[in-house]
Amino acid sequence: MPWNKRTLALPASPPSVRLARDWVTGVLVDIGRPELAESARLAVSELVTNAILHADPPMTVHVRGTVEHPRIEVTDQSLVPPLQRHSADDIDVDDEFSWSTVGRGLDLVASYALRWGADIDARGSGKVVWFEPATEPRETPTEGALFDLDEVMAERGEVPLDRSEMASVTLLNMPVELFAHLRQHFNELGRELRLLALTDPEEYPLAVEFAEVYLQVEHERRHVTGLELLDEAMESGAESVDLTYLAPPSAPGSMGRL
């Protein structure tokens, strides 16, 4: 499946719930997975509703992953992670009305998903809440997986490099818009392959390897100095910029592994 082609932009208004529900159903039918449509409809309805009520626009819905493991994502610009409220034992997982009235939308997602979670990235796409729909409701809701890039970087505990060890790089007439698209694509690709690795590491060994390389590249990127001019050029809408920056000497080797 062309994961970067299945995208729907949504206005922050109530009609977006039905729009997202019908669109996701159509995509799943189109890729030959109609048996997942009902679970996906229920779960994406809750995620879009939560985004409208509690998150920051713009919002988008994506269908990514593979035909064997399709994944629905809802993105917004909020950096507040979703909170799962555990439902009472007497909640009927087949009763959509009972879920909506008690306000336990994430428990519904957890009951209709093989796996689900959220990614938080202050420098990337904001928040992405995702799930892989199940064919039928689970008796025990699955726990969500929260990935916060800043926290992961802090947990790695790598010592910052000395400035004298950095390599100087000069780029003349760097196309600003091209770099902005490249940065966005790299972040999305990193998340995509990391989630594939989470889905089935034995089936996607290259995704497992890439996920680790991605974190190494991110670690090195956070030690780069001198990219402020590029960020300013992106904000001002400049077409090109001349850059001279310092990067860790290991950065070219890490990028070469991608």
Low-confidence stretches: 86-103
Q: Estimate the mean pLDDT confidence.
A: 83
What is the name of the CATH superfamily of the largest domain?
Answer: Histidine kinase-like ATPase, C-terminal domain
CATH topology (fold) name of the largest domain: Heat Shock Protein 90
Helix content: 40-55%
CATH architecture of the largest domain: 2-Layer Sandwich
Q: Biggest sheet, open or closed, and with what strands and sense?
A: 6 strands, mixed
Structural class: alpha+beta
Number of domains: 2
Radius of gyration, Cα only, in angstroms?
Answer: 20 Å
Total number of β-strand segments? 8
Strand content: 15-25%
Order of helices and strands: EHHEEHHEEEHEHHHEH
Distance between the termini: 21 Å
Strand order of the largest sheet: 1-2-3-5-4-6
CATH class of the largest domain: Alpha Beta
Task: Walk me through what this model shows.
This protein has 258 residues and is an alpha+beta fold. It folds into two domains: 145 residues, Heat Shock Protein 90; 99 residues, no CATH class. Helix content is 43%, strand content 22%. The chain has nine helices and eight strands. The strands form two sheets. A six-stranded mixed sheet has the order 1-2-3-5-4-6. A two-stranded antiparallel ribbon has the order 7-8. The radius of gyration is 20 Å and the shape is globular. The protein starts with 6 loop residues before the first strand and ends with a helix. About 7% of the residues have low confidence.
Topology:
Elements: E1 7-10, H1 15-30, H2 37-54, E2 59-65, E3 70-76, H3 96-102, H4 105-111, E4 113-121, E5 126-133, E6 145-148, H5 149-156, E7 167-175, H6 176-199, H7 205-221, H8 228-236, E8 240-247, H9 251-256
Parallel strand pairs: 4-6
Antiparallel strand pairs: 1-2, 2-3, 3-5, 4-5, 7-8
Helix pairs in contact: 1-2, 2-4, 6-7
